[in-house]
Design brief:
The protein is an alpha/beta fold. The chain has 2 domains: about 200 residues, Medium-chain alcohol dehydrogenases, catalytic domain (Quinone Oxidoreductase, Chain A, domain 1), CATH 3.90.180.10; about 140 residues, Rossmann fold, CATH 3.40.50.720. Helix content is about 25%, strand content about 25%. The chain contains 13 helices and 15 strands. Strands 3, 4, 5, 6, 7, 14 and 15 form a 7-stranded mixed β-sheet that branches. Strands 10-9-8-11-12-13 form a 6-stranded parallel β-sheet, with helices on both faces. Strands 1-2 form a two-stranded antiparallel ribbon. β12, α10 and β13 form a beta-alpha-beta unit. α5 crosses α6. It starts with a strand and ends with a strand. Bound molecules: nicotinamide-adenine-dinucleotide and zinc ion (2 copies). The site of one zinc ion has 10 residues, from α2.
Length: about 350
C-alpha cells in the first residue's frame, strides 16, 4: 500500500510500504476513506517531536471502513464506517477509568507518533472498541474528519477548561483550525462576546464568519489596549491560548479579568514567564490539557443534528496520492488561504 512516511526532520515521501496486519485481538485494520493534515504533523516534520522515528507513517485523524477486526473486538465488524479518534485508549487502565484517555497507560496519542498513522491507504487501530466511533448513514464525511482531533481539542482544552458561561467575554488567541474549533464550540454556551486575535487577516475574516464578535490583528494593533477598550477596562473572563508560543501566553496573562480562566491549548516548545507578581491576587485559574476525546460522542451528535458545522473549516480537497501537494498548501497557510485540507482515498 501507499503511505506518507517521515524520514527525519524536513524529509517525507509517498512510499510503497507493507500493509498493516492485526497484532493483538483488540486491534482493527481500517481502510482509510478520508484523512487530513494537522499543525502537529508540521511540528513533527520540523523535528520538534523527537520521539517520532524515521520510517513512521504520519497522521492521527480520519475516517474509514473496517477491513478486519480482531477476535476481541465486539463493537465493530468488517464493513462498518468508522471515525478514528486521535487518541487510542484501552478503557481499562487507571487513567482511562478517570476519563483521561490522553494519558492511557497502554495508548494515548500514539497514532502517527509512536505507531504508524492515518496518512495511508490502511491503518492499524489498537483498542478498536474504545478508539473508534460508528458513523451513521447520511453524515457528512468531511465533517466527521473534524471530529478526530480539532473539535474535541478546541472544546475540551479551550471551552470546558476555560469554563465558558452565558454572557462571558472570551478571547481566543490564535485563529488556526484549533482556535476556530474553540470559537465554534464556545457558542454552545452563548458567551456575550468572542474576541479573536491572530496575525493573519484571512484567518481573522474566517473567524468573523464563524461567529467572532470582534477581531484583532496583533501585528498591526496593540492587542492588550484593544481588548481593554472593548471590555470597559476589565479584561476577559476567559482567555484561550491556541498558538503555542511565549508571546501569546503572555498576552493571555495581560488581558485576563479578575476571576478569569486562562485555558492553554497550544503545544509549547519554550518556557514562558508566569507573572505571579501581578496575578497572585486576581483569583484566576490556569489550565493545561492534552485532548482526551471523551466528548467525541456528544460532539458527534451535535454535528449529526446540524447544530455544529465543522466542515466550514475545510478549504481544500486533494486525492490521497497528492498528499505532498496538500502538505505544501497546508504548510503555506497565509499565502494559500488554507485552513483544513481533506485527502480522499477514493
Ligand atoms: N493540547 C492539545 O491536545 C492540542 C491538540 C492539537 C493541537 N494543539 C496545538 O494547538 C495549537 C494550534 O493548532 P493549529 O492547528 O490551529 O495551529 P496553526 O499553526 O494552524 O494556527 C496557529 C495560529 O496562530 C497564529 N499566530 C502565530 N503567531 C501568533 C502571534 N504571535 N500572535 C497571534 N497569533 C499568532 C497563526 O497565524 C495561526 O493562525 C498548536 O500549538 C497545536 O500544536 C494542542
Ligand atoms: Zn492533531
Ligand atoms: Zn487506558
Amino acid at each position: 500500500m501507499k503511505a506518507l512516511v517521515y524520514h527525519g526532520p524536513g524529509k517525507k515521501s509517498w512510499d510503497e510500504v507493507t500493509k498493516p496486519i492485526l497484532q493483538a485481538p483488540t486491534d482493527a485494520i481500517v481502510k482509510i476513506v478520508k484523512t487530513t493534515i494537522c499543525g502537529t504533523d508540521l511540528h513533527i516534520l520540523k523535528g520538534d517531536v523527537p520521539e517520532v522515528t524515521e520510517g513512521r507513517i504520519l497522521g492521527h485523524e480520519g475516517i474509514g471502513i473496517i477491513e478486519e477486526a480482531g477476535n476481541s473486538v465486539s463493537a465493530f465488524k468488517k464493513g462498518d464506517r468508522v471515525l478514528i479518534s486521535c487518541i487510542s485508549s484501552c478503557g481499562k487502565c487507571e487513567y482511562c477509568k478517570k476519563g483521561m484517555y490522553s494519558h492511557c497507560m497502554n495508548g494515548g496519542w500514539i497514532l502517527g507518533h509512536l505507531i504508524d498513522g492515518t496518512q495511508a491507504e490502511y491503518v492499524r487501530i489498537p483498542f478498536a472498541d474504545n478508539s473508534l466511533y460508528h458513523i451513521t448513514a447520511g453524515s457528512s464525511d468531511d465533517a466527521m474528519v473534524m471530529l478526530s482531533d480539532i473539535l474535541p481539542t478546541g472544546f475540551e482544552c479551550g471551552v470546558l477548561n476555560g469554563q465558558v458561561k452565558p454572557g462571558d467575554t472570551v478571547a481566543i488567541v490564535g485563529s488556526g483550525p484549533i482556535g476556530l474549533a474553540v470559537l465554534l464550540t464556545a457558542q454552545f454556551y452563548t458567551p456575550a462576546r468572542i474576541i479573536m486575535i491572530d496575525v493573519d487577516d484571512n484567518r481573522l475574516e474566517a473567524a468573523k464568519k464563524f461567529g467572532a464578535t470582534n477581531i484583532i490583528n496583533s501585528q498591526k494593533n496593540d492587542a492588550v489596549k484593544a481588548v481593554f477598550a472593548l471590555t470597559e477596562n476589565k479584561g476577559v473572563d476567559v482567555a484561550v491560548e491556541a498558538v503555542g508560543v511565549p508571546a501569546t501566553f503572555e498576552l493571555c496573562q495581560s488581558i485576563i479579568a479578575p476571576g478569569g480562566h486562562i485555558a492553554n491549548v497550544g503545544v509549547h516548545g519554550k518556557s514562558v514567564e508566569l507573572h505571579l507578581e501581578k496575578l497572585w491576587s486576581q483569583n484566576i485559574t490556569i489550565t493545561t490539557r492534552l485532548v482526551d476525546t471523551v466528548t467525541t460522542p456528544m460532539l458527534l451528535r451535535t454535528v449529526n443534528s446540524g447544530k455544529l458545522e465543522p466542515e466550514k473549516l475545510i478549504t481544500h480537497h486533494f486525492k490521497l496520492n497528492n498528499i505532498l501537494e496538500a502538505y505544501e498548501t497546508f504548510g503555506n497557510a497565509a499565502k494559500e488561504k488554507s485552513l483544513k485540507v481533506i485527502l480522499s482515498n477514493e
